[in-house]
Amino acid sequence: VSKQSQRGGEKTFLGMNERSIFAIDPRIKPNEHTGNKVYSFTYATNVKLSTAATDREGHIVAGNRSGQLRLFDGQTNKEGELKRAKTFLSNLSTSEVPITHVDVTSDGNWIIATCATFLMLVSTDGGNGFSKSISSSSSPPIILSLSSSDIAKHGLTAIQFTGAKFDEPRGLIVTSTGSL
Fold first, then answer.
1. DSSP character string of 112-158
2. pTM for the predicted model, two decimal places
């Protein structure tokens, strides 16, 4: 439910499917209506959610198979349901490319979204995108991809990036493709 929470003995965890994001507490006895859910947010349509991550404050970023990002503040409303996403970022790349993995820095300032052949580094406007709406046009993503000379140099015939992660202590973004 927040970055590194599993290291502190946190029992609840974040889950998702194509239409919903939810927190589950396996200690709660399931019931027929909510299962073990502590809170959730479900879209009326299939928004094709594919990946999610949290920062240390419990803010949630969710990516989907249409190349969009949704930023939630991680708070619940008076009914105990997760509040609607504060920021919706679409048209991040030139085409609707599926996002296969996301990671967010501990402070919530940056998101790295992994697509098959490139990465998108997205600013959250100092973490403000989790608490108020920001637009992708105010801070367009930085597209990170291999150069054609590197593709030729390493003899790559196909690129399929693994989920990129922030290595914050060293100030790096780490991913791989094939044997590289």
1. EEE-SS-EEEEE-TTTGGGTS---TTTSPPEEE---HHHHHHTT-S-
2. 0.86
Distance CA 153, CA 172 (A): 23
| Listed residue (95, 93, 72) closest to 84, CA to CA | 72
Distances in Å between the Cα of 100 and the Cα atoms of 44, 111, 116, 121, 148 are 22, 13, 7, 14, 23
Among residues 126, 107, 150, the alpha carbon closest in space to that of 3 is found at: 107
Q: What is the pLDDT of residues 81-120, one digit of tens each?
A: 899 999 999 877 767 899 999 999 999 999 999 999 999 9
In the chain, the N- to C-terminal Cα span, in Å, equals 32
